[in-house]
TrEMBL record:
Species name: Vallitalea guaymasensis
Protein name as it appears in the record: DUF4430 domain-containing protein
Keywords, sorted A to Z: Membrane, Transmembrane, Transmembrane helix
Any Pfam family matching the protein: DUF4430
Membrane-spanning segments: 7-25
Domain Transcobalamin-like C-terminal residue range list: 167-244
Entries under InterPro entries matching the protein: Transcobalamin-like_C
Amino acid sequence: MKLNKTKVIVFFIIIAVLAVAFWWGGNAPGLQGWNVSTDNSKELESRPGGLKGSMTAEEKISLAKELTNCSSPGVKKGDTDYSVSLGMEIDEDTGKDRYLTDPVPEGKPIPIEPQNVEITDKELTCAMSVRCDTILDNINWLDKEKVELVPEDGIIFKQDNVTFYEGESVFNVLIREMKKNKIHMEFVNTPMYNSAYVEGINNLYEFDCGELSGWMYKVNDWFPNYGCSRYQIKEGDVIEWVYTCNLGVDVGGYSALGGDL
């Protein structure tokens, strides 16, 4: 009797081990639909939350904070000589600046540190919009209690010309316009990157629609590779805040991961 009991226990242990191997082998529901590879030239299929279970909570938050507001479509790498010529200080050992920012592509503006900016009373004009239409295509991934927060057309703030003051950043304009139009917004300051990080707009937060979801911004169709409070806007700029459900793949910011669009 004791021998048979031992066999039963061993049998269940084997079954448990096989189940764990099956889960981590890529057949778990959270991993279906993603082609996870170290070869960044391979295109990722778009499935929000597709990396469930493969990262710790700390790793997910770190990845989101580094990339959600910072990506660069259309380029694989910035131009060091160009960036340095404009005043960006790049560490020769790391290839980044003191706030862990890579060089920017040629023709793009370098980051401006908020503490070094002088804001004048000169009024200028730019365009801005905020939208979350990608959620409409992935509504089943959204927390049920937040479905009613998503506009039917996905537009939270329709593109409009707004006033800003010389020297202000993308973040300055966003926070003022959201307050002016009584649209909820929440952010945190990230000293490591010397920038504000936008966690939520209209009560829609990072991770609300999949574990790779969150807010990103682009200016003149470019997703900057640095935070929104380091981007100094100019007359006529077009600022777009967009919600991604899978780390930029669905909004054109995929090359933040090393891809090429």
